Amino acid sequence: MHTKEYGPYAPKAEKISYYKPNYKLVKCRVNGVPVEKMVDKRASLTDFLRGDFGLTSVKKGCEVGECGACSVLIDGESVDSCLSLAIWAEGKDIWTTEGLKASDGSISLVQQAFIDHAAVQCGFCTPGFIIRATEVVHRKIRYTRDELRVELAGNMCRCTGYENILRAVEDAIEIEIAKDGENK
Ligand code: FES
Ligand code: FES
């Protein structure tokens, strides 16, 4: 026989909180701007940048450190943000592709080289490649084609546009080296 003493009919239990959010204040610089934000200690840097700052150039590809689509520069080094916790950003200088533009709106020489060499197809991998290439180009080293392949090996392009990407990065390196010569 039906009674009203169980399930939804039972007296209401005391409130139990199963989820105890564990947040931490993170202070860092994002694209040159000082920011501070309370973040879930378990959140990835990808979610931090995309969710909290709307920086959607940071793509979610594999989310296991294989494709490089989520690459960002942390203190000048390209890093897979999907493998980084947001709380590790504390005190760091983080750059995404959105931040590579100059204040007058002009794009970086790496971005221009990608345009000049049509090194973009669907574009999903492009921001990650631009970030990685920015670090590589900044070194001003003339790599052989094979060495450059190794340098870019952490970034994958599913449209297989590798040849044009390699040409774009080689070109950007040459322009960077030439700029150095002009400044001497
Ligand atoms: S999404 Fe981070 S490496 Fe693929
Ligand atoms: S351009 Fe489509 S994944 Fe690289």
Summarize the entry for a quick read:
The chain has 184 residues and is of the alpha+beta class. Helix content is 32%, strand content 15%.
> Looking across the biggest beta sheet, what order are the strands in?
2-1-5-3-4
- Report the CATH architecture of the largest domain: Roll
The poorly predicted ranges are none
The name of the CATH topology of the largest domain is Ubiquitin-like (UB roll)
Order of helices and strands: EEHEEEHHHH
How many beta strands in the DSSP annotation?
A: 5
Number of domains: 2
Domain 2Fe-2S ferredoxin-type: 14-100
Protein name: Putative carbon monoxide dehydrogenase, small subunit
Keywords: 2Fe-2S, Iron, Iron-sulfur, Metal-binding, Oxidoreductase
GO molecular function, one term: metal ion binding
Your description of this structure?
- With 184 residues, the chain is an alpha+beta fold.
- It has two domains: 23-99, Ubiquitin-like (UB roll), CATH 3.10.20; 109-183, Orthogonal Bundle (DNA polymerase, domain 1), CATH 1.10.150.120.
- 32% of the residues lie in helices and 15% in strands.
- The protein has five helices and five strands.
- The protein has helices spanning 45-53, 109-116, 126-138, 145-151, 162-182; strands at residues 23-30, 33-40, 71-74, 77-80, 93-95.
- The protein has a five-stranded mixed beta sheet, with helices on both faces.
- A hairpin with a 2-residue loop joins β3 and β4 (77-80).
- The longest helix has 21 residues, at 162-182.
- One FE2/S2 (inorganic) cluster is lined by residues 120-126, 157-159, 161.
Can you tag this structure with a few keywords?
184 residues; alpha+beta; Ubiquitin-like (UB roll); DNA polymerase, domain 1; 5-stranded mixed beta sheet; 5 strands; 32% helix; binds FE2/S2 (inorganic) cluster
